[in-house]
Amino acid sequence: MTRSSAVGAVPSPDVLAEAASSFGMLASPVRLHIMWILASGECDVSGLAEQVGGALPAVSQHLAKLKLAGLVRSRREGHRQVYLVDDPHLVSLVQSMINHLTGPTPGQGNRRGRAV
């Protein structure tokens, strides 16, 4: 029997476990930064390393984890591997969280309590 809540049917334990695993992948600031960049468009590992300020091997390892988790995919473009996020729901989730934390709250500055 499936119960309903204000947001829809209660997800199965398997779905909840998969969601928790995906959120766990995004719990790393570097991986979240990579996802933020890829939400804006494709990028290769060199460009990502430059933008996140990380070493190429470390960024490459983060990408491997994100790819293994199914959060990013890659394609070959000549001699380089280009990474992308092609799930609009995931892009929206990442952008919504960042915007939620940095966007203004009426009369209170932003969500972090800093004045805007």
From TrEMBL:
Residues 11-105 form the HTH arsR-type domain. It holds the Pfam family HTH_5. The keyword Repeat does not apply. Keywords: DNA-binding, Transcription, Transcription regulation. Gene3D superfamilies: Winged helix-like DNA-binding domain superfamily/Winged helix DNA-binding domain. InterPro entries: ArsR-like_HTH, HTH_ArsR_DNA-bd_dom, Metal_resp_trans_reg, WH-like_DNA-bd_sf, WH_DNA-bd_sf. This is ArsR/SmtB family transcription factor. It comes from Streptacidiphilus cavernicola. The lineage of its organism: Bacteria, Bacillati, Actinomycetota, Actinomycetes, Kitasatosporales.
